[in-house]
């Protein structure tokens, strides 16, 4: 399975991020975090740094199994 397919399945499609390299999208548009420490993430579903379930958002926590997770189709 290629990296793009893995990201599409494993990252919530509502996750978004911004780092010094520009904007990145979540689930439906796979992306590569070039600099984890400087990336700011938010959920477009809750419009905050916390998801609808009140948990923090990040590429590591916005994954399948979380109650608010929505994968790409």
Would you mind describing this structure in some detail?
- The protein is of the alpha+beta class and 73 residues long.
- It has a domain of 41 residues.
- Helices cover 11% and strands 18% of the residues.
- It has a three-stranded antiparallel sheet with strand order 2-1-3, with no helix packed on it.
- A hairpin with a 2-residue loop joins strand 1 and strand 2.
- The radius of gyration is 11 Å and the shape is globular.
- 16% of the residues are buried.
**Through-space gap between termini:** 16 Å
Q: What average pLDDT do the residues reach?
A: 76
- Spatial ordering of strands, largest sheet: 2-1-3
Classification by helices and strands: alpha+beta
Order of helices and strands: HEEE
| Residue share in β-strands | 15-25%
**Overall 3D geometry?**
globular
Explain briefly what this protein structure is.
This protein is an alpha+beta fold. It has one helix at residues 3-10; strands at 15-19, 22-25, 40-43.
Looking at this protein, list some descriptive labels:
alpha+beta; 11% helix; single chain; 18% strand; globular; disordered N terminus; three-stranded antiparallel sheet; 73 residues
């Amino acid at each position: 399975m290629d990296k793009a397919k893995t990201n599409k399945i494993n990252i919530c499609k509502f996750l978004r991020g911004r780092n010094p390299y520009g904007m990145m999208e979540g689930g439906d548009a796979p992306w590569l975090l070039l600099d984890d420490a400087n990336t700011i993430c938010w959920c477009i579903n809750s419009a905050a740094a916390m998801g609808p379930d009140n948990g923090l958002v990040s590429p590591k926590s916005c994954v399948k199994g979380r109650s608010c997770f929505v994968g790409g189709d």
